[in-house]
Amino acid sequence: MGNICRSPLLEGWAAHLRAQSPVAYSVDSAGTGGWHAGQPPDPRAIAAALRAGVDISGQRARQLQFADFQRFDLVLCADRDNLAAVKSLAPTAAKGRIALVLDWSGVRRNGEVPDPYYGDTRDFDHVCALAREAADGLLRRLAREA
After folding, report:
1. Which of 60, 68, 108, 115 is catalytic?
2. Structural domains of the chain in order of their starting residue, each with its CATH number
3. Where are the beta strands (DSSP E) in the chain?
4. Do residues 56 and 43 lie in contact, with contact meaning Cβ atoms separated by under 8 Å?
């Protein structure tokens, strides 16, 4: 995918809530495809985030790089298609650190974040709310495992 809808919302919430975390962490988002590289998030994603009090307008899309598997301890994916694509790119040692974001954060077992790209405002707001839940779950799990 191109890194302009779901991932920026997930990154935005994780970064926004980072100050509340007892554990230091860094976040970044990337797409499995590079066709949107350098572009800001979709205007509808920016608007949904702003309605929720989070500014993601400064983010820029980028494609997942091999170095990301060394740079990050964890790679979280929005859906099974991206999970499969990321695992196919990952070195063997990193495959155990790749998971579905809603599952890993405890929001929904085997849950997927739907792609709102062909949807409307409600779809973007729904994904924004899921991103908030995922970020809350991320903080809880990081604190438990610290």
Report:
1. 115
2. 6-145 (3.40.50.2300)
3. 75-77, 98-100
4. no
Say what the pTM is: 0.96
Known catalytic membership, residue 115: yes
Is the Cβ–Cβ distance between 132 and 13 less than 8 Å?
yes
Q: Which residues of the chain have pLDDT under 50?
A: none
Do the strands 98-100 and 75-77 form a parallel or antiparallel pair, or are they unpaired? parallel
DSSP secondary structure letters along 64-125: --TTHHHH-S-EEESSHHHHHHHHHHS-GGGGGGEEEHHHHTTSSTT--PPP-TTS-HHHHH
Of the residues 6, 44, 62, 132, only one is catalytic, namely: 6
